[in-house]
Amino acid sequence: MTDGLLALQQRLQHPFSKPALLSQALTHRSFSSDHYERLEFLGDSVLNLAVSHLLYARLGSLPEGDLSRVRANLVKQDTLHQLAVDIGLPDLIKLGEGEVRSGGQKRPSILADALEAVIGAVYLDAGYAAAQALVERLFASVEINPQMDAIGKDPKTELQEWLQGRKMKLPMYKVVGTIGAAHKQSFDVECEIPELRLCERGIGGSRRAGEQAAASAMLQTIKTKVKP
After folding, report:
1. Who's near 88: CB < 8 A, 6+ residues apart?
2. 82-112 pLDDT per residue, tens
3. Does this chain's domain 1-146 share its CATH topology with 153-228?
4. 44 is an active site residue
5. Is 116 a catalytic residue?
6. Pick the catalytic residue: 116, 125, 154, 200?
7. Is the N end or the C end of the chain the one with fewer CB atoms within 10 Å?
8. Which CATH topology does 1-146 take?
9. Which of 37, 40, 44, 125 is catalytic?
10. How confident is the model at residue 204 (pLDDT cuts 50, 70, 90)?
């Protein structure tokens, strides 16, 4: 293991028993077929559960809608990007030459995805308790208060709040296809709201971007087809 990965483990305060997981979590699909996207998928769910637990403990008196609003602030791309920078991920991400030339090591979407992948890697390496402890350490320096407002809400957050305000279940996102060469793939993502019998799709350069595009399309459909 390189000195950089050893130092990262110290910053994470988690020594990996399976170091290959950490290496994979920092590997972009443009670099290798053994990339971080499956770990990112897992880490996204672990992150949401851990942050929900954190908020339930700290802001337990808040109603569900407010807790969801605060959580949306904490798990959005901008926040995760800053946390990834804080722990030094930009210098450790493994990218293909094209991504390096285009500034991929500084791209917020890549760094946010990699951080989720690292969380997923810790979960697989040592279980949920270790992953939850990591999330709590990562967010220890982030100000968390009931007044946090989702300024400039992204489409996924806006859609989620619209549904929760009407006591509906959250949308379901699914990757239905990929487009392009492996080093420069786009993701075709489906957003479905069964209660409204609506389904829309969007395409983006990452799974996260595809979900945002699909959510944006769904919001437009809701505005034209669903009564206020």
Report:
1. 7, 8, 11
2. 999 999 999 999 999 888 888 888 888 899 9
3. no
4. yes
5. yes
6. 116
7. C
8. Ribonuclease iii, N-terminal Endonuclease Domain; Chain A (1.10.1520)
9. 44
10. confident
